[in-house]
Specification:
Blueprint lengths: L1 H52 L1 H4 L5 H6 L3 E2 L6 E2 L2 H32 L2 H16 L2 H19 L7 H25 L3 H9 L4 H30 L2 H6 L17 H8 L8 H32 L1
Antiparallel strand pairs: 1-2
Helix pairs in contact: 1-12, 4-7, 4-9, 5-7, 6-7, 7-9, 8-9, 9-12, 11-12
Family: Belongs to the binding-protein-dependent transport system permease family. CysTW subfamily.
GO cellular component, one term: plasma membrane
GO molecular function, one term: phosphate transmembrane transporter activity
Length: about 300
Amino acid sequence: MQTNLRASERIVRKSRKLSLKNSERNGKMIVYTAAFLTVVATLAVTIFLTQRGLQSFYISDISPLEFFASTNWDPAGDNPTYGALVFIFGSLAVTLVSAIIVAPLGIGTAIFMTEIAPSWGKRVLQPVIEILVGIPSVIYGYIGLTVLVPFIREQVGGSGYSLMASIVVVSVMILPTVTTLSADALNRLPDGLRSSSYALGATRWQTIRRVLLPAAIPGLLTAVILGMARAIGEALAIQMVIGNTELLPGSLLDPTATMTTIITLNMGHTTFGSAENNVLWTLGLILLAISYLLVMAVRFLGARRKM
């Protein structure tokens, strides 16, 4: 009787070990498969976009100098021209000016949330930031189209459709991203920094300005760069307020276009393999290259933070 009982216990234990081993093996397979597919998808997109983007130069015989330095964009003319400087300038202008506006606002809000606000302030601000992150970009664009564009036209000047309108819309869109990541950077600082500063007689503002902000600079810059990464890739909201013209803007009140807006506007009206279609792929390749540069900057700052 006891022999049968011990045998059954051994079978149950062996079955449990086998089940645990299979479960662990299945978990590893899922994780490795997900990581492999992510790498393959990234490489596939990069290779495909590089191959398609370079066809403008070695198949359509478009001069790189004309493409990057000319403002003449007339792909449907008798003598087609493909100068993309206007769109490259538009994308960089919207991204950089938005980052300059949002950086102090986002970091300031993060300081208020993490260092100054009482507990009720954090409970109110955090959901507000999360709601702003979750609003679809088309909603931002629609509000910009119906509220911001008429306001600029009536109060500032111009048609309202302008570089300024797109900068304001994108700034609002990336503000929650910069704020959230900046707050995370400040929260990751060791409490010993604060307590040591206070023990030496520093005030709260002196602690923030001379201790916490210098220590959190890599994380804060990462927040701004990730905000720029979202700004450079935004298309729909900008397309609704920027005016979509092939003209280099002389001021913030002039309409213009970005790389993303010209791609979304024209991709459906071009023939696959035509020169204009290849040029749009080239614009996509430039956006990808900028994204890679921003990611490399984030990785560099992350490495500095660990040193």
